[in-house]
Design brief:
With 611 residues, this protein is mainly beta. Among the domains are: 5-91; 96-174, 3-Layer(bab) Sandwich (Phage tail protein beta-alpha-beta fold); 348-397 and 534-605, Jelly Rolls; 430-495, no CATH class. 11% of the residues lie in helices and 46% in strands. Strands 1, 2, 3, 4, 5, 6, 7, 13, 14, 18, 19, 20 and 21 form a 13-stranded mixed sheet that branches. Strands 22-38-24-36 form a four-stranded antiparallel sheet, with no helix packed on it. A four-stranded antiparallel sheet has the order 23-37-34-35, with no helix packed on it. Helix 3 packs antiparallel against helix 4 (148-159). The longest helix is centred in the middle third of the chain and has 17 residues, at 249-265. The protein is globular. Residues 1-22, 481-529 are annotated as: Disordered. Residues 485-527 have a biased composition (Low complexity). Residues 12-22 have a biased composition (Polar residues).
């Protein structure tokens, strides 16, 4: 099958159906949410899938045009838009999340981490172990009704391992994903990026100590401390780490040791977002990122990778960083927000909320707002959210029944036809007539024969005995003389020399048609006046917007399901979607209703130079 496709396999691996897809995208992170993908189908293709789909047990495989696997996992949800359906697919980690949890009190004391991971994988009947590395030999952990996926993640946090849920339903637990690729350069000058790379985090943290807090509280609370190798006295800089689920000091110590090493090795936290094309970059790879105007030319690791597959090929949206374990430290977020601008940018925080008011939409009419001047000096978009609120279609008047009366009185019509004339044109024409030709003889010596006539004519001769007249093929014998012979008739045609025009003229006339005696039209006011009040019910029905497609500058971002029976509100993340200058945000519902849009943002801006 040519193009992107979605294949549905049963739990036994048998293919149920394969349908064509329009677009697909997937997002994977080294730490954070489980991997997921979305594939867009025409409604007709989705109908074929829906007929055979077992939402709980089937395997969904998104295939590239070359037939290789783009993503595989479990059905999550479907969202219907205008003529299409977007199907969400979760990675096979969903199996580990939904599997039977551990027992009430499962304790491991000083064992290999690989042992704990294997036991957790064995709790998931649909998955099996792939590559399982041993990174710690004396790990102590305990679980109480823990989801297998959460337990595996907890072990990985303690040891620094990285996880991969493979498309063949195996799980890898390894020291590191990806490889170093210094030859892969993400830079405008190399033409490997769509737009200029964007710095989203640049803050320095000279952390010297970390204190960790685990389970319990007060004097019984589990605690541990870690000190940076580079610290040799002087003013300390302490950070805190807290996880109430940690009950073993050794596990807490491992975690904060890894974190202090990352702080010590990379005191300057740098995150850069970029859209890459024409490069082979996997999650976990370290590549070279160059931004000459910011004096950045260094290796950074791909910690988040979003691949967009469409008719024009694949575009990679990458988040690269020199941090992994400490980049999401929310306890330090506010301090880092200030530091990033005190250090070189001389910028400021720009917070804004813009309500655009409710308007009716539907029946081919979208709700559209214009963002006139999105800043071009943004260093980081902390968040850009669009709140989409749906409510009932409404009218400013109550459409009560009413009527109009129309009266048409007696009336008449008159038609006058005046004197006039006609002209008749008689064109050139022909006449036919017959002519007698006489074969004859005379027995008298003296005779007179008249000739030269061209129409009906006479021949006559005279002698002493009287006349004999021949006319039109007949003859009369007079007394005396002897006439003998015969005659025949021929037809001769003559032609008129031209046409003749004759004009006749009427004597004048007037015709009058009369019906009744005149005409008057009268319209009365409504017998039931319109009521000036808001109404949301029309012939017993209310209409709420559903399947609202949100697009920015003509590009679809997502589809909000909404609710067909009541008011609703959902928030759409537009971070990174707006471009400097004017932007058009469109909300197009599949069904009619009223839509209210609120755009809110928190931006870190450099500010324009006054020079």
């Amino acid at each position: 099958m040519v193009g992107i496709s979605l294949r549905i396999d049963g739990s036994d691996g048998t293919t149920k159906t394969t349908v064509s897809a329009q677009t697909a995208n997937k997002k994977e992170e080294l730490k954070g949410e489980m991997a997921r993908a979305e594939v867009e189908l025409l409604r007709s293709a989705w109908a074929d899938v829906e007929d055979v789909l077992d939402r709980r047990n089937d395997r969904l495989i998104i295939e590239k045009p070359d037939g290789s696997t783009f993503f595989a996992g479990r059905f999550d949800e479907d969202r219907r838009g205008n003529g299409s359906v977007t199907v969400s697919v979760e990675s096979y980690e969903l199996d580990a999340k939904q599997a039977e949890p551990t027992g009430a009190n499962v304790v491991y004391q000083n064992v290999n981490d690989s042992t704990i991971v294997q036991d957790l994988i064995d709790l998931v009947p649909t998955l099996s172990a792939g590559t399982i590395d041993t990174l710690a030999s004396n790990l102590s952990m305990s679980f109480s009704y823990a989801e297998p996926s959460k337990g595996i993640r907890s072990v990985a946090e303690a040891t620094g391992a990285e996880l991969r849920y493979n498309y063949d339903r195996t799980i890898d637990y390894v020291d590191r994903r990806g490889t170093d690729k210094p030859g892969v350069v993400l830079s405008p000058s190399e033409q490997t990026v769509v737009d200029n790379p964007r710095i989203t985090e640049d803050a320095r943290e000279d952390v010297t100590h970390i204190r960790g807090f685990g389970a319990q509280s007060g004097p019984d609370q589990i605690t541990a401390t870690a000190t940076a190798d580079s610290y040799n006295g002087g003013r300390p800089n302490w950070k805190e780490y807290e996880n109430k689920e940690i009950k073993a000091v050794s596990r807490l110590q491992r975690i904060i040791d890894q974190r202090i090493n990352e702080y010590d090795g990379e005191p300057r936290h740098l995150d850069i977002d970029t859209s890459a094309v024409g490069v082979d970059v996997a999650l976990g790879d370290r590549v070279t990122v160059q931004i000459p105007e910011e004096n950045i030319d260094r290796m950074l690791r791909v910690i988040s990778r979003r691949s967009v597959l469409g008719t024009a090929g694949a575009v990679l949206k990458l988040v690269t960083s020199n941090r992994l374990l400490t980049r999401d430290d929310q306890n330090q977020k506010a301090r880092k927000d200030l530091q990033r601008f005190n250090r070189g940018y001389q910028g400021y925080v720009d917070r804004n909320t813009a309500p655009y008011g409710p308007e009716v939409a539907g029946d081919g009419n979208p709700r559209e707002i214009i963002v006139p001047d999105w800043p071009d000096d943004i260093v980081d978009e902390q968040f850009v959210n669009l709140v989409v609120q749906g409510s009932a279609w409404r009218s400013p008047v109550t459409p009560l029944s009413h009527d109009h009366s129309v009266s048409i009185a007696d009336h008449s019509h008159s038609v006058s036809i005046s004197g006039h004339q006609h002209e008749v044109d008689i064109p050139g024409h022909q006449h036919d007539y017959e002519q007698a030709v006489l074969d004859h003889r005379h027995t008298h010596n003296d005779y007179e024969f008249q000739t030269g006539q061209t129409d009906g004519h006479d021949h006559s001769y005279q002698n002493g005995f009287g006349y004999v007249t021949l006319q039109d093929g007949t003859f009369t014998r007079a007394s005396g003389g002897v006439l003998g012979g015969s005659w025949s008739t021929t037809s001769t045609t003559t032609e008129s020399g031209g046409s003749t025009t004759e004009t006749t003229k009427s004597g004048g006339a007037t015709t009058t048609t009369t019906s009744d005696g005149g005409g008057t039209t009268t319209t009365t006011d409504s017998s039931v006046p319109l009521s000036p009040e808001i109404t949301t019910t029309f012939q017993g029905n209310s209409y709420y917007p559903t399947d609202v497609t949100i697009s920015v500058n003509g590009t679809d971002i997502t589809t909000v399901s909404g609710d067909s029976s009541s008011s609703w509100s959902e928030t759409v993340d537009l971070t990174g979607e707006l471009t400097p200058g004017q932007n058009t945000i469109t909300a197009t519902p599949a069904t009619r209703g009223q839509i209210n849009l609120i755009l809110s943002s928190e931006l870190f801006r450099r500010g324009r130079s006054s020079a």
